[in-house]
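note to self: dont lose this again. the chain is below, predicted strucutre after it. 443 aa total, dont forget to put it in the shared folder this time
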Amino acid sequence: MKHQHSFQDPVYVVDGLRTPQLKATANPGPFSASDMAVFAARQLLLKMPFSAHDIDEVIIGCVMPDASEANIARQIALRTGCSEQTPAWTVQRNCASGLQAIDSGMNSIRTGRSELVMVGGTEVMSRAPLLWNNAMRSWLSEWFGIRSKGLKRIQQYSAQALRLRTQFFKPVFSLLKGLKDPIAGLSMGQTAEILASRFNISRAEMDQYALLSHQRLSQAIADGLLEHEITPVYDHNNHYFEHDTGVRKDSNLEQLARLKPVFDRHYGAVTAGNSAQISDGSSILILASDSVVKKYHLPVLGKLIDCHWQGLAPEEMGLGPAYAIPPLLHKYNLKLSDIDYWEINEAFSAQVLACKKALNDDEFCQQELGLGKKLGDIPIQRLNVNGGGISLGHPVGASGSRIVLHLLKLLKQQTFHSSEQSFRGIASLCIGGGQGGAILIEK
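---
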């Protein structure tokens, strides 16, 4: 029997681990999405004083699992060693799927349904399925529908074979489909161009921010700041990966400036260099109620306070954090200055910079958010301080849980390695389709 809880009860993050984020190349990556999650989950559970059988529930975010990974959360749960009686379910909210898993786990604990929940996200974009187009699917349905016998069967097969056309073999790239909004008819990159135009963000600003992302991640790796966050992964060819592979230590503004715009070739400024990388990765966290923390004498990485979701126009989906953050601050009577560190997922340089400018703009805050005045400026020295999606990559199902994990680890590091006592953080993402999500956490 689970304890009765209220929505005021604390939900703790015991700990978390992630895999390195591997930049997608021309070939499919060495791991499936469930492989990546199992690497992180198994190593995380080895650190715990309880067994996998003690977990009440498993919730995982994933956008494009392999065809053999239906309800991928259940596969991860069983492969990790959870009991067959442990329920597991998969959530999908595009780029914020990992954050949705955390929010769902938090609510499961607060409603008393669970006490100990494994949550997170996983994505292997390099293995995004290739699909047949509708013409080929129709042809195949007719081919496999032939049931005649003898000569008639041969005749029907022959006739059907003559209907086959070369254009039937044109594949549908699910990754490209997923990166385009079907309602607005725009790719995510085109929505970033819209924000760049609206907020007068120059190509130079975008490239400068992209360079900063690589410099920050390079420095974090050199300083060993990610060592307690990442667990190495090993493939079947005895290769191992212990760091994020997308970082470019030698990146500079001259190189970035030479890249051509991708989404508006004539007038655009969004390039591959100032956009998030396509990558593979997973991040897993353990959530617990106060009673379970006491029962097992668990260490506590941080506390989840609340999460807020907000919709907006799909054409400007990158502004999602600018819409999701203010209600969260208002609910807890907080100002921007009350937040010690911020993680805003770097889908595009233009998108992060647009969110910063929007929250520091009187007209936007008054007309779009209904506020009396602007919220203010998020200090760049407090935002994505160890890099983000541009240098790390953005495995869509995993990014939401990765930024929460990193923010918690960052707050803990600041406690032990800085004279400044950092206490509170917000992690936020824009979401394809026109949504934003934000979560408030405390050390």
